[in-house]
Amino acid sequence: MSSSESESSQQGRHREAGHKSLLQSDALYQYMLETSVYPREPECMKELREITAKHPWNIMTMSADEGQFLNMLLKLINAKNTMEIGVYTGYSLLATALALPDDGKILAMDINRENYELGLPVIEKAGVAHKIDFREGPALQPFLLEKKQGSFDFVFVDADKDNYLNYHKRLLELVKVGGVIAYDNTLWNGSVVAPPDAPLPKYVRYYRDFVLHLNRALAADPRIEICQLPVGDGVTLCRRIK
């Protein structure tokens, strides 16, 4: 295949907003979505996904298959008290809220309230807004430092990649032993294995070294068990063991 044909092929892959699959076969990914994901996607999540697709920053949203995975994971670990760092329009937040019991709580933080409010009417209509405590601003705020150690069952991080390790230091204190921290985008568009001279979008190249550093640090951290999955743009689960 010529370079022009290869570029054309890449441009044609996964055009729908939120599609971040690392699968090389578009047909295989579409089969998975149409067979197992979309038929079981709650109507409210479908509505929010379609609203988000019209937003100019829609690449930031979670893919539908990862939303399904997150929802299932939270049920499997019986999570009740959770945190989300990086909310955007709230697709992952809605997946979490739907999975938690009625008295479950999510401390959700993002620097942009406007994006969150784009999805808020859908979240309210779904009847789960009472579970969410949204805070606008950076996640490493003073009030977070005051939170009780071991008070969270689960934390989902999808925010500024250059701060992931700073989050990790604090989150390991906040999540309970046996609790889980999930870091999103840990395969970073597949750039983690790209050669140094590979033509990458500027933002991908800028954050790649931070993601590589994070992956090495998590793999060497004796306080956690890890599992890195090629779901969406790569997600690493960290279970605190001490």
TrEMBL record:
Pfam families of this UniProt entry?
Answer: Methyltransf_3 (PF01596)
Give the coiled coil ranges: none
Record's keyword terms, sorted: Metal-binding, Methyltransferase, S-adenosyl-L-methionine, Transferase
Which GO molecular-function terms appear in the entry?
metal ion binding; O-methyltransferase activity; S-adenosylmethionine-dependent methyltransferase activity
Biological process annotations from GO: methylation
Matching InterPro entries, A to Z? Cation-dep_OMT (IPR050362), SAM-dependent_MTases_sf (IPR029063), SAM_O-MeTrfase (IPR002935)
Q: Which SUPFAM superfamilies match?
A: S-adenosyl-L-methionine-dependent methyltransferases (SSF53335)
Keyword flag Transmembrane: no
Question: The organism sits in which domain of life?
Answer: Eukaryota
Q: Which family does it belong to?
A: Belongs to the class I-like SAM-binding methyltransferase superfamily. Cation-dependent O-methyltransferase family.
- Please give the name of this protein: Caffeoyl-CoA O-methyltransferase
What is the protein's species of origin? Musa troglodytarum
